[in-house]
Predict the structure.
Amino acid sequence: MATAVMTTLDPKSGAASRGMSDIAIRNLFIIPTILFLIVFNIFPLIYSLGYSFTDFRASSPAAANFVGLQNYRELLNDPFIWSNFAITAKYVIVSVVGQVVVGFGVALLLNRTIPFKGLITTLLLLPMMLSMAVVGLFWKLLYDPSFGIINHVLGLGTFEWLSNPDMALYAVAITDIWMWSPFVMLLSLAGLSAVPKHLYEAAAIDRAGTLYTFFRITLPLVAPILMIAIIFRTMEAFKTFDLAYILTSQPTTEVISIRLYKMAFQEWQTGRSCALAYIVLIMILAITNIYVKYLNKVKER
Amino acid sequence: MAAVQTSGEKALNRVAIVAVLVITLIFLAPIYWIVSTSFKPRNLSTTIPPTIVFTPEVSPFVKLFTKRSQLREPPTAEEYAAAPWWERMVFDGGEKVVRDGKGNVQWSAYPNRFMNSLIVAITSTVLAVSMGTITAYGFSRFRVKGEADMLFFILSTRMLPPVVVAIPMFLMYRAVGLNDTHWGLIILYTAFNLSFSVWLMKGFIDEIPKEYEEAALVDGYTRMEAFFKIVIPEAATGIAATAVFCFITAWNEYAFALIMTNRRAQTAPPFIPSQVGSGLPDWTVIAAGTFLFLLPVAIFTFLLRNHLLRGMSFGAIRK
């Protein structure tokens, strides 16, 4: 990094001769941040990589024994871990599809002349800015079979949401959809407003149908931004912890982050949990890679 | 033909407006329910069917801030008459305010947790934004070898699942005594927000024409002076927006706080759910605590409304 430096300024401008050189300033500005992130993000990960090959338990004074790949082998052969991944996948699909349908749908509705559009948009965006844990907690009262407003409004009697093993995951996903559809809506609105008006006018002259216009003009042009929203939400839903942890304790809602948390901080299987953390980490990095590619693509447009 | 289309369009527009209003109401209903519950007397918070119309009162907030205990017998008439208005509200709810030997009112844990949240969120925001701004300037104005890879590295640290990072951090913090301290959380939140702050600030600084600084350099400014006197003021809006985003992220964070703190440095997000123990929780007190906790974020959201898109897309989409 410190080698082969070219400054954007012409050296003849004289800046280099007064005060600190550009190279020194560049290094002073960039290196501390990189070091900070290495010390507090990368070093811990190396530390836990080491533990992932041991039987270390943070709750016991016994020294860690090297067990090689045993943790990884056992985890990958553990049907319960796979069921946690399956639950996570189901959760990701339900909540991301829900967010895209609701978020994109609302964006389509908002993409016309509507009184107080700015105010309404801001109000709709409010849920995603709030703390998932704190607001999520309150949904417990909303979902309550007897006192809950949801059952009252929908006329569902004493329908069980969170204490019903078949329903709990959907209940968590509904709360997530409520919180994060606004995010998809926000990005979709940006995409929709960037579609040139003359394309619609041309389509109208050609007497193109509404559906044709939507699938041939609107959707392809909004797709890149919508993709960003989808990948980002997929990643976040994959990592989900707060909502599911706060709302329920059903085995059917034990997403992978909750399994990891329990393994690490309740069962104190530190070595094993480090191995699981690595499996999760590799999956996340793969999605991040795709995400950043799309971010850069949209940026270049 | 054209006239028919317009009236059809008009009708469609009306339907859209109604639909938008209904959706907005549905989206705001949970927030309304939090706010309204925080002004309800306890016996109206869990009724069948739910109470929608009621006379608001502030007793949940009085209860939120005071330590209370169950009354074994109702207060005497003198006790009741001598009590200030807010203490009477607690009496009315069948509880009494706990006082120490000198008669001072005992506070609940809430104000302390709220303060912890403020300390941690503000300090980590200042650190993340100041480091993020200078680093963004470095990436924006100088050629850095492997810039794309470094920026990817920086962003990828943000994407790590909190629980994955928390396991080794917990062990390391335990070794150096940072568990359950403000600094422990501040460091984690700074690291978490730093990547965001670099990406967002880079976008803002990229938009400031280089010519401004070049002119200043020609006028005899050093690069540092040009940065502090030209770039920073030009980037002020961006810095403010980034800071608000970082503050909200740190303010809302739950998983790290749950794992790394338990009492002394505990912030509000893990504290508020911990009030729901066994038995029937007092939802009015939880709602009051939630309401006060959400209020700063709601205000910030309105101030930030024109920057939300940019912030939520890490600076990629600017509009």
Remarks:
- Chain B touches chain A through 108 residues (CB under 8 Å).
- The mean pLDDT of chain B is 90.
